[in-house]
Prior knowledge:
Largest sheet of chain A: 11 strands, mixed
Oligomer: homodimer
Keywords (chains A, B): FAD, Flavoprotein, NAD, Oxidoreductase
Family (chains A, B): Belongs to the NADH dehydrogenase family.
Protein name (chains A, B): FAD/NAD(P)-binding domain-containing protein
CATH topology of the largest domain in chain A: FAD/NAD(P)-binding domain
Number of strands of chain A: 27
GO molecular function (chains A, B): NADH dehydrogenase activity
Mean pLDDT of chain A: 81
Helix content of chain A: 25-40%
InterPro entries (chains A, B): FAD/NAD-bd_sf, FAD/NAD-binding_dom, NDH-2, NDH2-like_C
Shape of chain A: globular
Amino acid sequence: MRLRALGLPRWQRGRDLVCRQTLFQHSTRTVLCASQRRAYATPVEPPQQLKNDTREKVVILGSGWAGYVLSRHLDPKKYRVLIVSPRSYFVFTPLLNDTTVGTLEFRNVLESVRKRNSKVEYVQGWADDVNFVDKFITVEPSVLDPDVGHALTGPRKVNEERTNDVLERTLHAGGTSKTQVPTFPVSYDKLVIAVGCYSQTFNTKGVRENAMFLKDVRDAQAIRRRILELFELARLPIIPEETKRYLLHFAIVGGGPTGMEFAACLSDLIRDDISRLHPQLLKYIQITLYDVAPKVLPMFDASLADYAVKQYKRQNVQIKTSHDVEELRKGFPNDPEARQNQANQVKGRVYTIRTKQEGDVGIGLCVWSTGNKNNPFIEKALNHVRRFPVRSAQITQGGATAVENPNTRQWIIERDARSGSLLIDDHFRVNLTTDAAIDAEVNGDPDHGHDPQPHAYVKDVFALGDATKLKSGALPATAQVANQQALWLAKALNKYPDPEAFAQNKGFTFRNLGVFTYIGGAKAVLQGPPVSGRGGNGNGNGNGGVASKASGLNFRGWIAFLLWRGAYLTMTLSWRNKFLVPIQWVAVKLFGRDVSRF
Amino acid sequence: MRLRALGLPRWQRGRDLVCRQTLFQHSTRTVLCASQRRAYATPVEPPQQLKNDTREKVVILGSGWAGYVLSRHLDPKKYRVLIVSPRSYFVFTPLLNDTTVGTLEFRNVLESVRKRNSKVEYVQGWADDVNFVDKFITVEPSVLDPDVGHALTGPRKVNEERTNDVLERTLHAGGTSKTQVPTFPVSYDKLVIAVGCYSQTFNTKGVRENAMFLKDVRDAQAIRRRILELFELARLPIIPEETKRYLLHFAIVGGGPTGMEFAACLSDLIRDDISRLHPQLLKYIQITLYDVAPKVLPMFDASLADYAVKQYKRQNVQIKTSHDVEELRKGFPNDPEARQNQANQVKGRVYTIRTKQEGDVGIGLCVWSTGNKNNPFIEKALNHVRRFPVRSAQITQGGATAVENPNTRQWIIERDARSGSLLIDDHFRVNLTTDAAIDAEVNGDPDHGHDPQPHAYVKDVFALGDATKLKSGALPATAQVANQQALWLAKALNKYPDPEAFAQNKGFTFRNLGVFTYIGGAKAVLQGPPVSGRGGNGNGNGNGGVASKASGLNFRGWIAFLLWRGAYLTMTLSWRNKFLVPIQWVAVKLFGRDVSRF
């Protein structure tokens, strides 16, 4: 989900859109250009058989763990479900790593949002804005967006082709401004925001441009292609020894489960397949994992993490903790020309990673996996509530003024001060509060400040998954959490369609089912739930780890590996993939991984 | 295979390279720049365990039906086999159509040239030139070439990134000219030219830029993506009715087996899957197949072809024969602005196909399949034999002068006057003759003209597959022919490594095994071999069809379909794919085609 207009940096675009939107809502429609009006005037959802449909319409933003799982579990007899998401499929992320090396195929870990027997509707687009009062969202189509399928890291360079492109000829064949981004409104009865996060780069120099990420299927595809390409390059008789060493040095940044599992998969590929296909290259290969922290896999007990680190050493994966990556650039290490003249650099041959501790190191590929950062949709589009949604919102506390005429106040969406995530209650409802500073300015009335800070929740707007933080305490940004949240919300909405009854329902509690990570060589580490049986909720460390470290049932080695595979098979995958994934495992066992590169 | 240097159109590049090469061979080495010398000075093949290798080295150019099959059947005890090909895999072309709609996955029809247990070596690159005297070829790496995996149609626009890119920094880190294309030599004992053909566009306006082809796996990938994209686009609420009709109009040009099978696969996809996923779009869908000839499937008996055409009609595929396509462009039909201003056209939304008979028609996708055209490597690089390979060539006829001192003549490679294909004898040897015109000019001796035209064959250079024509008569450019040729050559070389014995061996004859085509709806047409049992060789129609039309055993309908599937399963595919293809067929039957688009 994302904001965009006319060549401005994304956050400015966001602001711009919000402004235009505000005008619109205050019914100064004349300000809008003709094409814009036409877009807005389009009937929201025309299908005829739905005209007599009395079901409530639930619009879900996002097709990740939270959004997809929720859509599958909402009762189609009670709800008409519409997913709005830039990508038309769900990625089974725990197995995405396996596709980067060919242990699984890409489609084995994808579930199309459109399915033969599913009643879920779908629109492919980015949500640009939400109108809480009139209950609609604004959607920008993403069908032709080349970024879809890749991890997103922040505002992009404006793509010439896209700005005077995409749909506007189709839309405005009559011939209005070519720079108008086409959008259209989609109405909702209930809205669920499950847009997830972008990838964090900490603004490290060159990372956005030169690193590969591991969040979506096209990332995995690009990595697989690159790995095989590097070996093919290194086989050319004209490549000098030193360059081979650079090309076959694989760097991974981030010692969380994603980075560690990728290292494990890569080392499997090299041991099982590359060793037979390119035996003469083995001596050049190096895998290095960098982490800024003193310890990898922080969510595991020390004994399990130590066991994992030992296994990695045996597989020739160097783990360099307490290393700060300062830059990632194209070109050879210690090449002053390259450092000066980035623009002239050739694309994609040798890269250089620079750490504070070691300086320049030549590499062929850098996979970057250092966690999440906030989605611009959350950060910008949901910044201000332009009009207080009187009918949808329930004021829970606040000064007399707030209750009497809430629209005299500038309401904002409650969010975590540190991370900017949406702060939600245990019913996943979006909460509102007022911006004291803006209030004072707008109303010229400093007295508002003396009232208790008003609070409200929106009855028909929910948020869950990585983009949110529970008021009762942060949960890790994992598939397990998003999955449980979605299941809870689906069950609660199916049982209590009415907001009042829903509000009476007991809130969500997270049940920590443990955490596991594949560590290569058919081994895994598996840390069971803490002995208390539940927990986690309310005492999270907030940064990718499962909270409680009280010793539960732990497994390691091949037993953990078997449990790991078994667990995944029983999970969210469709019957198609439940059928194909084990077959693919057998095929890899029998015939090796497929190394065709295309 | 292809020629390239420094921003010239390809054929000029070819010429340029040839000239430089000629200089080099006449040992005016000082003309070459430093980097060039370095590239040439690189030891040809260093692996140590091969230094004592006494086997003959067979270099195969190409990894298609001819090259790949040959490489698998040459005896590794007798030959060291090296494939040089721009793409690192073999495509099982008869099933490529199935991957465009998801009936099979891409990797199901690919065989990597590098295999775990194979002794075949491989270098990923384009052959640029052949030196018949010193017995080496010149190779330009293609590892990073973005064109690899796509059908090639002719000289490309110069890719900025590629020209100052690819490998030269890696190569010439010292810092010589950035525009030098790196090449390296590869020596051979026997050379097999199996480079195949490019795709024919007849220079129809806009086809190269706007059509999709169906020759390689990335073509299939692009088509699959585009088909699903068009349906997703048409589902957006902002797309007007008329535009939906354009977007969902699929045009296919070429009524040969490839075009017809693609139409069949597309209609299967629509009937089985799209009808359930997008029922509201069915009314907009149209499939039209254009052919300039009055009849499609010309290689089949009239009764089978008529049956096929009837089936297509039932599947709502319109077949428009005797239609001349004049242009394919981006933009809406009958839009004067679009016709004027191609550069401003938006990319890839609606296309317009213009035929002489019907004028402009709006479409969403055009798949172009009108046969083969000559490979520039065949056309240009092999144009002149700079020095007569005295030791390798056997002069079979010719004037006394030719035999006494063949280097006084300008020898050329014998080729078909009309198509430019290499003209080969029934042992697949490349043949030489002299260029009378050049001879006269060089020697100032018109008497040469009175001698019988000299002829020779090269004992250690073979050619087979689509790029060749047998002297005894053209065979169709099919997988069946290339496959049989490769098997014959492998067997003959394994049995008679010595050229003299090889020459005594009985030549190749083609055994027509019949021809079949899938026509959709689990039906096929299968025309058995002509009653005489053999034939074809010598009476081909030369243009994609199997020659003889004497009535043999014909099948049609689902029986032909079952035979068709069974036949493919027993063919060239590896055990991996023999295992995975039927499973994929079952999965599609049970769960439908996968429609994830990424």
